[in-house]
Amino acid sequence: MTFLTWWFRLVGLVNIVLGAMWLPFLNAPRLELTVPGWDAPIGGTAYRGFLDFTMLFGLDLLILGAFLIAASFRPFESRIVAWLAIVLSIVRGILDDLYMIAAGYPLPGMLAFIALHLAIVVTGLFALRAAGRSRRTTA
Fold first, then answer.
1. Which domain holds residue 33?
2. What is the average pLDDT score of the chain?
3. Number of domains in the chain
4. What's CA 82's distance to the chain center, in Å?
5. In sequence order, what DSSP letters do the residues of 13-72 get, joined into one string?
6. In 10 A of CB 72, how many CB atoms?
7. Where does residue 25 rank: exposed (0-12), middle (13-18), buried (19+ CB within 10 A)?
8. What residue intervals traverse the membrane (predicted)?
9. What is the pTM (predicted TM-score) of this model?
């Protein structure tokens, strides 16, 4: 069960860090890295709207991270939370990053995030499998 416990904690921490980065006070200074070629006035309606929208994404990540860490205290009973994180890493992670690449966002950053999400998916599947094996051998 140790692998799944630590997977929950590590992936939870990653989500908390990434979620915090989308909060407006941390996201605003790096806006032009987030959206290369930003052409709306800084401080204007589009700028404020974008920061408000991305804050919601950040809050989602913070909540997911908190639930993953909470799940680490009862890992086998919380497997559904692991599946949620894995599926979100596939859909909101890998597939969205591929979309962003097709839309013209910088390739190196998107590939780094694809690698991160792929690592979450693969290690999560291994952790779930190990937890299932561990549970069967102790039963």
1. 2-138
2. 94
3. 1
4. 12
5. HHHHHHHHHTSHHHHGGGHHHHSTT--SPTTSHHHHHHHHHHHHHHHHHHHHHHHHHHHT
6. 21
7. exposed
8. 7-26, 46-73, 80-101, 107-128
9. 0.91
